[in-house]
Amino acid sequence: METSAVGQSTSIQSMLGTKPPSAKEMASHIFDDLDTNKDGKLSADEIEAGGDRAKKVLEADTDGDGTVTMDELVNQITTDMENGPPPPPSSENATSDNQSTLDVTA
Questions:
Q1: pTM score, two decimals?
Q2: Which of 64, 67, 87, 101 has its CA 20 to 30 A from that of 44?
Q3: Which CATH class is domain 18-83?
Q4: Contact at 8 Å (CB) between 77 and 26?
Protein backbone atom coordinates (compact mmCIF):
# COMPACT_ATOMS: atom_id res chain seq x y z
CA MET A 1 0.00 0.00 0.00
CA GLU A 2 1.44 3.35 -1.06
CA THR A 3 1.09 6.41 1.12
CA SER A 4 1.53 9.89 -0.30
CA ALA A 5 3.56 12.55 1.47
CA VAL A 6 0.31 14.35 2.23
CA GLY A 7 -1.15 11.17 3.70
CA GLN A 8 1.94 10.70 5.83
CA SER A 9 1.75 14.28 7.07
CA THR A 10 -1.91 13.88 7.96
CA SER A 11 -1.22 10.60 9.73
CA ILE A 12 1.61 12.12 11.73
CA GLN A 13 -0.59 15.07 12.73
CA SER A 14 -3.31 12.64 13.80
CA MET A 15 -0.89 10.57 15.85
CA LEU A 16 0.66 13.58 17.54
CA GLY A 17 -2.65 15.33 18.07
CA THR A 18 -1.34 18.45 16.33
CA LYS A 19 -3.35 20.79 14.22
CA PRO A 20 -2.56 23.92 12.24
CA PRO A 21 -2.35 27.08 14.34
CA SER A 22 -5.43 29.26 14.61
CA ALA A 23 -5.51 32.84 13.34
CA LYS A 24 -5.27 34.08 16.94
CA GLU A 25 -2.22 31.89 17.62
CA MET A 26 -0.54 33.13 14.45
CA ALA A 27 -1.32 36.78 15.30
CA SER A 28 0.00 36.29 18.83
CA HIS A 29 3.27 34.91 17.47
CA ILE A 30 3.61 37.85 15.07
CA PHE A 31 2.94 40.31 17.89
CA ASP A 32 5.55 38.62 20.09
CA ASP A 33 8.10 39.10 17.31
CA LEU A 34 7.22 42.61 16.16
CA ASP A 35 5.75 44.56 19.09
CA THR A 36 9.10 45.62 20.49
CA ASN A 37 7.73 48.22 22.91
CA LYS A 38 4.96 45.82 24.06
CA ASP A 39 2.20 48.46 23.80
CA GLY A 40 -0.27 46.07 22.15
CA LYS A 41 -0.08 47.83 18.78
CA LEU A 42 2.24 47.43 15.83
CA SER A 43 3.52 50.76 14.51
CA ALA A 44 4.71 51.19 10.93
CA ASP A 45 8.28 51.37 12.27
CA GLU A 46 7.93 48.08 14.16
CA ILE A 47 6.41 46.41 11.10
CA GLU A 48 9.08 47.72 8.73
CA ALA A 49 11.79 46.57 11.15
CA GLY A 50 10.39 43.05 10.70
CA GLY A 51 11.59 43.00 7.10
CA ASP A 52 9.87 41.86 3.94
CA ARG A 53 7.91 39.07 5.61
CA ALA A 54 6.22 41.59 7.91
CA LYS A 55 5.07 44.04 5.23
CA LYS A 56 1.81 42.15 4.65
CA VAL A 57 0.92 43.05 8.24
CA LEU A 58 0.41 46.65 7.10
CA GLU A 59 -2.65 45.48 5.13
CA ALA A 60 -4.36 44.69 8.43
CA ASP A 61 -4.63 48.38 9.38
CA THR A 62 -8.31 48.60 8.50
CA ASP A 63 -9.07 51.79 10.44
CA GLY A 64 -6.18 53.68 8.82
CA ASP A 65 -4.64 54.94 12.06
CA GLY A 66 -1.12 53.79 11.13
CA THR A 67 -1.02 50.98 13.67
CA VAL A 68 -2.18 47.38 13.66
CA THR A 69 -3.99 45.95 16.68
CA MET A 70 -4.28 42.30 17.62
CA ASP A 71 -7.95 42.28 16.51
CA GLU A 72 -7.08 43.79 13.12
CA LEU A 73 -4.32 41.23 12.60
CA VAL A 74 -6.53 38.30 13.65
CA ASN A 75 -9.21 39.49 11.20
CA GLN A 76 -6.67 39.79 8.37
CA ILE A 77 -5.20 36.35 9.02
CA THR A 78 -8.68 34.81 9.25
CA THR A 79 -9.60 36.36 5.90
CA ASP A 80 -6.35 35.15 4.33
CA MET A 81 -6.92 31.63 5.68
CA GLU A 82 -10.49 31.56 4.31
CA ASN A 83 -9.44 32.86 0.89
CA GLY A 84 -6.41 30.61 0.52
CA PRO A 85 -3.15 31.57 -1.16
CA PRO A 86 -3.18 34.17 -3.94
CA PRO A 87 -3.35 32.78 -7.46
CA PRO A 88 -0.13 32.52 -9.43
CA PRO A 89 0.45 35.09 -12.17
CA SER A 90 -1.53 34.17 -15.25
CA SER A 91 0.42 32.54 -18.04
CA GLU A 92 -1.26 34.92 -20.50
CA ASN A 93 0.43 37.91 -18.87
CA ALA A 94 3.75 36.11 -18.67
CA THR A 95 3.54 35.15 -22.36
CA SER A 96 2.75 38.67 -23.52
CA ASP A 97 5.55 40.06 -21.34
CA ASN A 98 7.99 37.53 -22.75
CA GLN A 99 6.91 38.25 -26.30
CA SER A 100 7.44 41.96 -25.84
CA THR A 101 11.04 41.41 -24.75
CA LEU A 102 12.03 38.97 -27.48
CA ASP A 103 13.87 40.35 -30.50
CA VAL A 104 12.71 38.20 -33.38
CA THR A 105 14.47 39.04 -36.64
CA ALA A 106 14.60 36.94 -39.75
A1: 0.62
A2: 87
A3: mainly alpha
A4: yes
